[in-house]
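Record format v2
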Amino acid sequence: MKVRILRCKTPDSDQYWEAFDYNGTTDISVAGLLEFLNYNDDIINDKGEKTTRIGWECSCLQGVCGACAMVINDVPALACETFIKDLKGEEIVLRPLRKFPVIHDLMVDRSMIQENLKSADIYIGEYKPGKKKEHALQYNAAKCLKCGLCLEVCPNYTNGNTFYGALFANDCYLVATRNAEKAKTIRKVYGEHFGRGCSKALSCMDVCPVNISTLASMAKLNRG
Amino acid sequence: MKRVLIIGSGISGLSCAIRCAGYGIHATLISPYPSERAQSVMAAGGINAVTEECEEGDSVDSHIENTLRGGAYIGGKKAVSGLCGNAEEIIRYLESIGTVFTVGTDGRPYTRAFGGQTHKRTYFCGASTGKQIVSALVMEARRYEGIGLIERRMGLCFHSALIKDGACYGALVFDEKTRTIETVYSDCVVMAVGGQNSLFGKTTGSSLCDGYAAGRLFRQGAVLKNLEFIQYHPTTLETSQKRILISEAVRGEGGRLFYTEDGKRVYFMEDKYGPNGNLMTRDVVSREIYSASKEVFLDISFKDKQFIDSYLPEVRDICRKFRNIDISREPIPVAPSVHFFMGGLAVNLNHETNIRNLYAVGECASMYHGANRLGGNSLLAAIYSGNIAADDISGRESALKNVDFKDMADHANMELKGMLDSDSPFPVMYVRDMLAETMRKHLGIVRTEESLVKGIEDVEYDLSVSDRIKYDGSVSAYTNYSLKGILTLARAVLSCAKFRKESRGAHYRSDYPKESEEFGCATLISFDNGDYSIRSDKEGVYES
C-alpha cells in the first residue's frame, strides 16, 4: 500500500509530495501508521531514499484533544480514530488542513481559532441558566476540541475572515444557555460572525469528532 | 504591576492564571499548544469534594483521612487538610463559571463512588470531567485575556529557569518557529507542566507531558520528591496505539472485575476484599490484577443501555471505536498501565519550590497524594494548587530589581545554534525508546534491588550517549535539547526507587515486601555537582 503525504519543511518553504510503502496490518489508525513510519532509525521513502521523520501533532491518541486533525483521503478527520481498514482505495493520501498556515508537514497553525474567540469576547462569566433544560446539548457543545475540522470542511470559512465557523456558533450557544443574561449580546456577535455568513451546508456536523449538533445550537440562537 | 510567568496551560496553569488575574497580577501563559491539547482534557472520572449536600455521615475529616490512608500516610496532614477543606469552594467555583456537571432532576450536581473512599463524594461530568472543566476555565481565562490581564503565548517550550542566588527571575523559552531562545523576565514562575509520561514511552496520558522541565530544574538545583511512587491505573484497555484509560467511574457505577477459571467467573476483588472490593485503592487493585496472572475483565454490561449512555458515554465510545466492544453487552478486557506520577518537584504548603519565586502546581508538583493517589483527587489538587500558588504570589513584593541574564541567554542561544549546525548519527528517538524500555522493565508494579541497579546502569549509559549526540535533524529541536533533562529525571526516579527499601503504596519491592517505619516519610533527591543525593524528609520540611 502506498502512503502519499503532502510535506513541507518549514512555514516558508514549498509543499511537496513524498510517498512511503506500507505493508503492515490495516487494523491500525492513521496515527498508528504515522508512528510506524517514523519508528525506524532511518526513515526510507518508496524510492529507497533516506528522508526525515514525518511531522504531525499528537497528544492524547484517543480522540479527545483534536491535535491530530488532518485531511485523510480527502476527508477531514482525526488521525487517531481513523482506521486504515475503513478507508477506501489502494492508497492513503494525507495532507495538512488546508484552511490554516502550514508549520511543518502535517502540522498547522490553528491559533486563529483562539484569536477569533478572544476578539469576540466569548465567555460565560457567571452561571445563570435560562428556564429551558438543555443539559445534553450543553454537555456536548462543551466537548468541542477546537480541532478545526468543522472549519476545514466549511464552504464559508477562510482563515482571517470575519466568518468564524461552527465551533464559534457552538461556543456562542454554550454562553447563551449557561448565562441567560448574556444571551442577547451573544446573539449579536453570533449573527455578525456566523449567522449571516452560514450557507447551511452543515458539513461541519458530518466531520465533528465529538458529534456536536451545530444545527441545534443554531436553532437556539436563531429563534431566541 | 506584578508579572507571573506560567509554564503550561492545563487545568492547574489556567487556575493559577485566572486567580492571579483576579488579584490584578499580569499572567503570561506559555505552552506549545492550546489548553484543549493538555492532558487535563483526558481526566475522566470526577473531582472529590465533601459539600453541604454530602452523603449522610460524610465529612471533610473523612475525606482527609481517606486521602492520607490512600497515600499510605506519607502525604502531609496540613497539606491534605487544606486540599480537602477547600474542595467545596472549588466545586462551587466551577459551577459558578458554567462547568457542565452531570446533574439530577433538581439541577444539582450528582456524585458517584470512587476507589479508596468511605463515601460517595466524587462530582463528575459524564466521563469527561477534565474536558468539561478545561472548557469552562478556558472561557474564564478568555474573560481576563480581553482586559489584558492574561496573555497567552503558544508555540513556546520551556528551556530553563533564570536562577540566581537561590531565586528565580523568569525563564528561557524556545520558539520552534524562529528556532531561537527568548528571555522572559517575571516576578514569579509557576511550573504547570504535568507528569513524566515520556519516561515510559506511552502511558494513559498525553505524549506532550515528558518530564523535561522537572529534569532540567533538578539540574538547576530544584529538589524533587517521592519520585518512586508511580501510579499504575488498574483498568486500561489495549489498543493498537496505546493503552487507553477505562475510567474508575465504571467501577464507581458498579462495574465488577473478574477472571475466568474452569469456565466460571471469579470476582477476585470481591472474594478477597468484600462487596466493595472493586473500589479498593488503585495500587491494591493493580497488584491484584498483576498477581492474578490471568486475563482480567471489567463488566458493566448488567446495567441498562440508557444508564451507560447517560453516565459513561465516553467509555462506551472508546471501547466501540478502538476495540469494537459494546460495553452494554460484553465485558472489557483490562490490565494496569502507568497513569500518574505522585512524585515531582518538592514544594512547600504554598507550592513554592526550594528556589524562591519558583512554584510548581498540578501533577508536576509532588503534594497531597503520598504513596498513592485517590481517584478524583488529581483534578481537585490541580485547581487547589493553582489557587494556593496564586494566593501566595499575590502577597509577594516584586522581585525584579537589576537582574540581568543576558550572558545565560547568549550562552543558551550559542549552544542551540551549535546543536542546530551539527549533524548526529544517533537518532534521539532511539535513545527515548531505549529509555522507555528500561523504565518499563525495571520500574514495573513489582521491583527489586537487582533490577533497579540494572536500570540505573542502563540510564547511565543512555546519559553518556546523550552527551555525544549533537543534533538529530529528523526530530524537532525541542526533542533534541530535552533529552538530557528527561534522562536525568529517569536516573533520579530509579535512584529513589532503589533508596526506598520497603513496600508502600504504589512502590512495591518484592525484596522488601513490608512497610518499614524507617521510611515513613517522603524521599527527597537533589543534584549536587553530578551526584544524586537522596534523603528521607524526616523533619517533614515540605508538607507536614
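Chain B has a mean pLDDT of 95.
The radius of gyration of chain B is 22 Å.
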